[in-house]
Design a protein that fits this description.
Length: 302
């Protein structure tokens, strides 16, 4: 079937000095900011982009004066739209931006919610005072947090830093610590939850499953209340909703996490409190700390 909504257009331009000896995909991401990176990469992969008359690849290094031709569907405006949303910046340098994500805010746009996310906010922040001739910066998220989880969120400012940090993350070189307020009194002062996690396709929900992927969470009691406990947690593995599922499985769901059995509260009391990782330039190991807003709430731990 022919898609009547395609708005194909052929663009021709020369590489300027800003992108001399840079990757082709970086050039395209900057020039076509309203289009997603995934779409632009797909166009190149399918042979839709030529450099100096030859079919190109995304990683090709271009030079000043090179002639680029690309055919794109201009109706697919799905790229990141900058939005002025306040950010709590924890750390920033020329390669990194680390923020404290508030509870209730999506990390990145979806097919249903295109605006009002952390990526929209980061995109605005990174380009807020840049002259028109400068390179547009797209934040590259290194990891994710659930909508209802707050805390440390890391983004790289360029592809090189993103590739290095993403590799470190996949190889387990990041240490991520969380703080959670949970229902009831946890018996042991510290312990480990080792239960496999998988997705229930029928319920569209992640849960403990015998056939699931190995998942390990370590915990330590920080403070006890009359009907609740404040825990420090380390996610040894990084499965979707792992900490929420594990705590519910041992009978101590997170307060505010109604999906997994927690009581109703003003927010879900799970916070990414500390992250340790090597800087992408390899010079030092960073440790970013962030205190949760619920830690001194008398309604939780009285």
């Amino acid at each position: 079937m022919i898609n009547l909504y395609l708005q194909m257009a052929r663009h021709q331009f020369q590489v300027d000095s800003r992108f001399h000896r840079r990757r082709l995909d970086e050039l395209l991401f900057d020039r076509f900011r309203s289009l997603s990176k995934a779409y632009l990469r797909a166009v190149v992969k399918e042979g839709g982009c030529d450099v100096n008359g030859f079919e190109a690849n995304s990683g090709e290094i271009v030079k000043k004066g090179d002639f680029v031709e690309i055919e794109i569907d201009e109706s697919r405006e799905t790229g990141m739209v900058p939005e002025e949303i306040p950010l709590d910046v924890l750390y920033e340098d020329s390669e990194l931006l680390v923020v404290n994500k508030p509870a209730g805010l999506l990390v990145h746009p979806t097919n249903y919610e295109r605006n009002g996310t952390m990526l929209n906010a980061m995109t605005f922040y990174l380009n807020r005072e840049r002259p028109e001739v400068s390179v547009f910066i797209r934040p590259h998220l290194i990891h994710r947090l659930d909508r209802e989880t707050s805390g440390v969120l890391i983004a790289a400012k360029d592809q090189r830093s993103s590739r290095i940090l993403s590799s470190h993350f996949k190889r387990g070189h990041f240490r991520k610590e969380y703080i959670a307020a949970v229902e009831g009194s946890v018996d042991d002062e510290e312990g480990e939850i080792d239960l496999p996690v998988g997705r229930n396709a029928e319920l569209k929900k992640w849960e403990v499953q015998k056939e699931g992927k190995p998942s390990v969470t370590r915990y330590k009691v920080l403070k006890r209340g009359e009907n609740s406990t404040l825990l420090e947690l380390v996610a040894v593995t990084g499965r979707t909703n792992q900490i929420r599922i594990h705590l519910a499985a041992i009978g101590h769901p997170i307060i505010g996490d109604e999906l997994y059995g927690g009581r109703e509260f003003r927010r879900m009391c799970l916070h990414a409190s500390r992250t340790e990782f090597w800087h992408p330039n390899g010079s030092r190991r960073l440790s970013i700390d962030c205190r949760p807003d619920f830690i001194d709430d008398n309604d939780l731990l009285n």
